[in-house]
C-alpha cells in the first residue's frame, strides 16, 4: 500500500510496464470521468492574473472548455447581453469629471488594451487562480470570475504552479496514510505526478523550498536521497497504481520512473 516516490530528476528513466489484459475502454472511461469543474466565485468582478488565452465564447460552458483546453486554473467570463461598459469605469469617470478640469483618461487600461489588442474578448483564461485574499480581483461589471479553487480558497502559504495547480508542502513527518488523510482534510490530495510537466515543476518546487533542511546534505543533488516526499500514488492492487484522482497509472503515457519504481 505504501508508495514512496523519490523525485530524483537525474535518476528518472524509462520503465516499461508489463502488458495487462485491461481494455482501452477502461482508460477512456478513466479520462472521461475526470472533468475539472470551474465554480463561479465573483459576480461583476474579474481576476487580473496572467491571461493565457482569449476567446469570444457564446456560453460559459464554451469558455470553460477553452480553459480546460489551455490548462487554465481560472477564467473571467462576460456573459452575452450584459452591458458592455464597466460601470466602475463610468463611475470613476464621472467622479473625475466632477472634480477635475483635465479630460478624463482611464486610470487602468480597459481590458482589451491590457493585452495590446483592441478587440474585446469575453473569455479570458488564466494560468493561476485568486488566493483567499483576492488581491488581484478587479471590479468589472462586465465579467464574472470562475475558478477550480472556489470551495477552499487557497491560503497564502500555497504556491501556484501555472497551468498545473496549487501546492502546499507540509513539513511534517507522517506515514503515507496520515499524509494522504492530511491532504484530504485540507481539501486536496497528495500531489499528482503522472506527467513530465508535473514532475519537472514539482521537483523544482521541492528543490527551492527553504525549509528542506537536511543536516548532512549541503548538496542539492544528494538532498532528495535522504529526503522523502509522498506523492499521490496508491498501490490499491498488487502492481497496479492509482493516482490521487483514482485514475489507473498505466493509462498515462508518463513512464519516467527510476529503475524498479514505482514500487
Ligand atoms: C493588472 O495587472 C497589470 C500587470 O500585471 C497591472 O499593470 C495593472 O495595474 C493591474 N490592474 C489592476 C486594475 O489591478
Ligand atoms: C449600457 O449602459 C450605457 C450607459 O447607461 C447605455 O448608454 C447603453 O445603452 C447600455 N447598453 C446596453 C446594451 O444596454
Ligand atoms: C467626462 O468628460 C468627457 C469630456 O471631458 C466626456 O466626453 C465624458 O462623456 C464625461 N464622462 C461622464 C461619465 O460624464
Ligand atoms: C469594488 O467595489 C466596491 C464597492 O462596490 C468596493 O468596496 C471595493 O473596494 C472595490 N474593489 C476593488 C478591488 O476595487
Ligand atoms: C495575497 O496572497 C498572495 C499569495 O500568497 C500574496 O503574494 C499577496 O501578497 C497577498 N496580498 C495581500 C494584499 O495580502
Ligand atoms: C497554511 O495556512 C493555513 C491558514 O492560513 C494554516 O491553517 C496551515 O496550517 C498552513 N499550513 C502550513 C503547512 O503552513
Ligand atoms: C500511521 O501512523 C499512525 C499514528 O501516527 C498509526 O496509527 C497508523 O497505524 C500508521 N499507519 C500505517 C499504515 O503505518
Ligand atoms: C489510498 O491510500 C490511502 C491511505 O492508505 C487510503 O486511505 C485510500 O483509501 C487509498 N485509496 C484507494 C483508492 O485505494
Ligand atoms: C537550515 O539550515 C541552516 C544551516 O544549515 C540554518 O541556519 C537554518 O536555520 C535552517 N533552517 C531551518 C528552517 O531549519
Ligand atoms: C555548503 O557549500 C558551500 C559551497 O558549495 C559552502 O560555502 C558552505 O559553507 C556549505 N555549507 C555547509 C553548511 O556545509
Ligand atoms: C554533490 O554530491 C555529488 C555526489 O555525492 C558530487 O558528485 C557533486 O560534485 C556534489 N556537488 C557539489 C556542488 O558539491
TrEMBL record:
<dbReference type="InterPro" id="IPR016186">
    <property type="entry name" value="C-type_lectin-like/link_sf"/>
</dbReference>
<feature type="signal peptide">
    <location>
        <begin position="1"/>
        <end position="23"/>
    </location>
</feature>
<dbReference type="InterPro" id="IPR016187">
    <property type="entry name" value="CTDL_fold"/>
</dbReference>
<protein>
    <recommendedName>
        <fullName>C-type lectin domain-containing protein</fullName>
    </recommendedName>
</protein>
<keyword id="KW-0732">Signal</keyword>
Amino acid at each position: 500500500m505504501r508508495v514512496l516516490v523519490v523525485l530524483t530528476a537525474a535518476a528518472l528513466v524509462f520503465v516499461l510496464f508489463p502488458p495487462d489484459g485491461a481494455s482501452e475502454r477502461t482508460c477512456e472511461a478513466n479520462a472521461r470521468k475526470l472533468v475539472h469543474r470551474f465554480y463561479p466565485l465573483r459576480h461583476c468582478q474579474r481576476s487580473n492574473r496572467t491571461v493565457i488565452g482569449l476567446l469570444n465564447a457564446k456560453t460559459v460552458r464554451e469558455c470553460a472548455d477553452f480553459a480546460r483546453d489551455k490548462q487554465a486554473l481560472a477564467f473571467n467570463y462576460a456573459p452575452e447581453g450584459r452591458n458592455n461598459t464597466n460601470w466602475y469605469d463610468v463611475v470613476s469617470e464621472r467622479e473625475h469629471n466632477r472634480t477635475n478640469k483635465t479630460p478624463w483618461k482611464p486610470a487602468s487600461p480597459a481590458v482589451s488594451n491590457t493585452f495590446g489588442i483592441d478587440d474585446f474578448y469575453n473569455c479570458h483564461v488564466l494560468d493561476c487562480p485568486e488566493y483567499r485574499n483576492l488581491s488581484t480581483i478587479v471590479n468589472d461589471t462586465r465579467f464574472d470570475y470562475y475558478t477550480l479553487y472556489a470551495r477552499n480558497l487557497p491560503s497564502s502559504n500555497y504556491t501556484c504552479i501555472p497551468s498545473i495547480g496549487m501546492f502546499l508542502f507540509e513539513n511534517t513527518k507522517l506515514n503515507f496514510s496520515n499524509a494522504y488523510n492530511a491532504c484530504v482534510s485540507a481539501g486536496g490530495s497528495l500531489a499528482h505526478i503522472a506527467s513530465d510537466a508535473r514532475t519537472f515543476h514539482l521537483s523544482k518546487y521541492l528543490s527551492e523550498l527553504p525549509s528542506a533542511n537536511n543536516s548532512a546534505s549541503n548538496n542539492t543533488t544528494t538532498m532528495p536521497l535522504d529526503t522523502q516526499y509522498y506523492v499521490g500514488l496508491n498501490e490499491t492492487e498488487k502492481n497496479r497504481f492509482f493516482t490521487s484522482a483514482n485514475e489507473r497509472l498505466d493509462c498515462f503515457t508518463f513512464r519516467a520512473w527510476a529503475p524498479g519504481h514505482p514500487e
